């Protein structure tokens, strides 16, 4: 995938251009900003949106799976793991399919540090050189090797956090080593309720906090305009999972999508299981540019 520089967060949203071979190239929606009953008297320019589908290959113990991400643990005990789907196709087969269909910008995520998952991820990258991003256990020691195997970008989260705080020196070192244009920051987040006590009442203020270490640990960094503007200087893209709904077949986190749509062009990967839900993203997310399809991708092979 050709690298894409994060746009100015206050610039007008731009529409991505799918590859010429993609059947989605000419799929565009024109959305009137007002319902017919409340349409203003003077002409209003319609909002024009486009969507680019980004495929996803989740690898767990060498197999392609769609799981509830929040059930992952660091231990080898899989008793708590909830698996929605497991494919008999290899990651490399999925990668070849996405290459054939001209789908770029997808990602390969290793849901474990085991050798089988690492080997399967590298095989997928070789099957579609330049067409896939890779994440899961990426650090300064192995980032370059995955790029050399064919990854267009590496996706990083936990490595640039330490004890709940962002390690800016690690982030800068990684950017210096591989370049901002090859780095994606995973800003997956969960709602964190903070209690602000006053004399007579308690206000519950739910904010989205970035989570690390298999989404089990809250960081002290919240996903907001200030965070997005700051991190945009270090990354080519952001990848955001709505952890509270991801993999649970609960649709999208509309509040999160609206937040992202207001402040940045990002790739949000809350679970998508119906085209109607996809359409709601354009309205709630104000033409959010990229939507990664994880729950759909395994079933399309059959």
TrEMBL record:
* This enzyme's EC code(s): 5.3.1.16
| Alphabetic keyword roster | Amino-acid biosynthesis, Chloroplast, Histidine biosynthesis, Isomerase, Plastid
* GO BP of this protein: L-histidine biosynthetic process; L-tryptophan biosynthetic process
In this chain, composition skew of type Low complexity spans 1-14, 31-43
SUPFAM superfamilies in alphabetical order: Ribulose-phoshate binding barrel
Q: Where is this region: Disordered?
A: 1-43
Q: Which GO terms describe its cellular component?
A: chloroplast
Question: Mainly resides where?
Answer: plastid
Q: Which reaction does it catalyse?
A: 1-(5-phospho-beta-D-ribosyl)-5-[(5-phospho-beta-D-ribosylamino)methylideneamino]imidazole-4-carboxamide = 5-[(5-phospho-1-deoxy-D-ribulos-1-ylimino)methylamino]-1-(5-phospho-beta-D-ribosyl)imidazole-4-carboxamide
Pfam families associated with the record: His_biosynth (PF00977)
Keyword field contains Transmembrane helix: no
What's the protein name? Answer: 1-(5-phosphoribosyl)-5-[(5-phosphoribosylamino)methylideneamino] imidazole-4-carboxamide isomerase HISN3, chloroplastic
